[in-house]
Amino acid sequence: MRWTPWWPEVALTLTQGNAFGSGVTIEGLGLTFGHGISRFEVRPGHPNSIGPGKRPLHNMCPTVVVREGKPHLAIGGAGGRRIVNGVFEVLLQYATGAQLENAIAAPRLNTFGGLELEMERNWPKAEADYLKSIGFNFVIGPAARITAVSIDWQTGEIQQASR
Fold first, then answer.
1. What are phi and psi of 28, to 5 degrees?
2. Residue 99 and residue 35 in contact, taking contact as beta carbons nearer than 8 Å
3. Residue range 67-100, pLDDT digits in tens
4. Rounded to whole angstroms, how far apart are CA atoms 132 and 39?
5. DSSP per residue over 1-62, as a string?
6. H or E segment at 26?
7. Strands 116-119 and 25-26, how do they pair?
8. If residue 84 lies in a helix (H) or strand (E), which one and from where to where?
9. Strand pairing of 137-140 and 116-119?
10. How many CB atoms lie within 10 A of CB 104?
11. Per-residue DSSP letters for 103-117?
12. Is residue 3 one of the residues assigned to a domain?
């Protein structure tokens, strides 16, 4: 597919949560409140525990990568608190030379601010063993769904991938 120059690249993350936000809608406006408090950790003493003056971890990070003043890559995700880790993992793979499809396909891990890690089933065993040896605990778990599109401005080639 070739890119049409007047069409901008966009990265978007839209979330209201599993039950469509708080379930509270402002009468007459149709605006539904989000569910931000659910992003706090309920256990006291955790870096993301609820407390006076604190703000929860934010889980959205739609990203546009620019090269030489032109949009090159747009990336975003779905998956709540796993989005930030997923976008970072894909950007890291892509920035270090992986093709977009391979960067999206690579295994991912999640951290929520402590020593607990959540790894996809296909995470390399040697890396998991090393992380465990330095004090991390891990479980097998899901990753965010990440979608990305890139354009090569010299050839006009567009690549897209999602997982």
1. 85, -20
2. no
3. 888 889 999 988 888 999 999 999 999 999 999 9
4. 26
5. -B--TTS---------TTTTTTS-EETTTTEEP--GGGGSBSSTTSTTB--TT--PPP----
6. strand 25-26
7. unpaired
8. helix 83-95
9. parallel
10. 24
11. HHHS--EEE-SSSEE
12. no
The predicted-structure confidence for 92-142, as pLDDT tens digits, reads as follows: 999 999 999 999 999 999 987 789 999 999 999 999 999 999 999 989 999
* Residue 20 domain-assigned (yes or no): no
Half-sphere exposure of 41 (CA within 13 A, CB side): 13
Residue 48 — very low, low, confident or very high, per pLDDT cuts 50/70/90?
A: confident
Distance CA 57, CA 31 (A): 23
Residue 44 maps to which CATH number?
A: 3.60.20.40
Residue 63 bridge partners (DSSP) = 75
pTM attached to this predicted model: 0.74
CA 106 to chain centre: 14
Q: Two tokens at 83?
A: 């989005």
Q: In this structure, is residue 113 part of a structural domain?
A: yes
